[in-house]
Amino acid sequence: MDAELLLAHALGVPRVALLTRDDVDGAAAARFAALLDQRAGRVPLQHLTGRAPFRHLELAVGPGVFVPRPETEQLVEWALAQLAGVDEPVVVDLGAGSGAIALSLAHEHRGARVTAVERDPQAIEWTRHNAALRAAARDRPVTVLAGDMTDPALLRDLDGTVDLVVSNPPYVPDGARVPREVADHDPPLALWGGPDGLDVVRGLLVTAARLLRPGGALGIEHADQQGSAVPALVRATGEFTDVADHPDLAGRPRFTTARRTTRD
Ligand SMILES: C[S@@+](CC[C@H](N)C(=O)[O-])C[C@H]1O[C@@H](n2cnc3c(N)ncnc32)[C@H](O)[C@@H]1O
Fold it and tell me: Does the keyword Cytoplasm apply (predicted)?
């Protein structure tokens, strides 16, 4: 699959066009060989093509930004279900990276007013770039904000008004073994989450509880070993109800959801 996608990239054609192609000129063959060498050296496919498919979008990616993963598409599916029937929901994506979640929500819910928060100065350049491309394609513009999702002053003007907070935060426990594509090419800030992987999640729960309106929805992606730990952390705040965990398509625990407590 990777070889086909790289050959198509070297030729500048869609993958399906390979089916009817029976020869490759010398220049394209040389480009293909160079790409194969890099891929064999464990450079991620998406860094070589410069693109990552995610739901209905194709995002620009490269060094300095986390490559969006297919598992996260289900978190977006869940998020869209929470927004169904709300004309102009207020949405915050904490840790936006390429903008995969924020821009998909804006694309698939045309009325959503989405803010994407990103702390990494390199990654946010990709967030801004992809947001500009989507705005040019006439999606409702997403607000991109440089900030720390654990900062008590973040987005103070939205306190108690947000319909949905969604996040795919860094959650890999420090020192865990990850594939070379990940270790060498995903940005450290996108991966490592402290001794149990949940340092950033603890801070994001405080921010989410402050931002969400009563009844507002929270969705957080996590590692497959954190299917009990993250729901327990969410419950322990005392700020959320309806805490549930959801599997990915491979059946592994993948994201936790909850609703902001409604007080009488
Ligand atoms: C796992 S990546 C997810 C990126 C994107 N949302 C996705 O699903 O592909 C986590 C992102 O959170 C950002 N991040 C990490 N810590 C953060 C913090 N404290 N505040 C804001 N963003 C943070 C990282 O730079 C990275 O872009």
Answer: no
Output the tens digit of pLDDT for each of the chain's 264 residues: 999 999 999 999 999 999 999 899 999 999 999 999 999 999 999 999 999 999 999 999 999 999 999 999 999 999 999 999 999 999 999 999 999 999 999 999 999 999 999 999 999 999 999 999 999 999 999 999 999 999 999 999 999 999 999 999 999 999 999 999 999 999 999 999 999 999 999 999 999 999 999 999 999 999 999 999 999 999 999 999 999 999 999 999 999 999 999 975
Q: CB within 6 Å of ligand 1 — which residues?
A: 66, 68, 72, 95-98, 100-101, 117-120, 123, 148-150, 168-170, 187, 189-190, 200
- Region for residue 215 given its phi and psi (left: phi exceeds 0; alpha: psi -120 to 50; beta: otherwise): left
Compute, in angstroms, the gap from residue 29 CA to the centroid of ligand 1.
Answer: 37
Examine residue 47 and state whether it is found in any structural domain, yes or no. no
- My answer on whether 81 and 112 are in the same domain is yes
Domain count along the chain? 2
Question: Which of 171, 200, 254 gets mutated to test ligand 1 (max ligand atoms within 8 A of its CB)?
Answer: 200
Same domain? For 198 and 247 the reply is yes
Helix (H) or strand (E) holding 121: helix 121-136
Residue 24 structural domain: 2-41
Residues 170 and 238 in one domain: yes
21 & 76 share domain = no
Q: How far is the CA of 155 from the centre of ligand 1 (A)?
A: 17
